[in-house]
């Protein structure tokens, strides 16, 4: 509240909801009661959103204004999932020869 932030996004370990339940309950109390935020939270896996990493994290979003907060679980993961290969477009490198090496990525292919 001291910063005047009207929106927040927080990230934490999913165990905060189980092992750290007392800490989580205190955090919710402060965010909602003391600071006036309406919050939503969900455990999301970065892999479901196109990140090449299998990493679950607790995400907490909040607003202090009168606008509606959309539940985090309403956000659809990126489908189809992209592979690192498709992101870096290695397909175009398959036909290159060692003589064509003009970048580190191309040279790594050979």
Question: What is the element layout, followed by pairings?
Answer:
Layout: E1 7-12, H1 21-34, E2 38-45, E3 56-63, H2 84-88, H3 104-108
Antiparallel strand pairs: 1-3, 2-3
What does this entry look like structurally?
Helices cover 22% and strands 20% of the residues. With 110 residues, the chain is of the alpha+beta class. Strands 1-3-2 form a 3-stranded antiparallel β-sheet, covered by helices on one side. The protein is built from 3 helices and 3 strands. It has helices at residues 21-34, 84-88, 104-108, and strands spanning 7-12, 38-45, 56-63.
Which spans have pLDDT < 50 for at least 5 consecutive residues? 91-95, 103-110
Taking the alpha carbons of the first and last residues, their distance comes to 55 Å
Radius of gyration of CA atoms, rounded to a whole number: 21 Å
Order of helices and strands: EHEEHH
Q: Which sheet architecture does the biggest sheet show?
A: 3 strands, antiparallel
Helix content: 10-25%
DSSP E strands, number? 3
**Portion in beta strands:** 15-25%
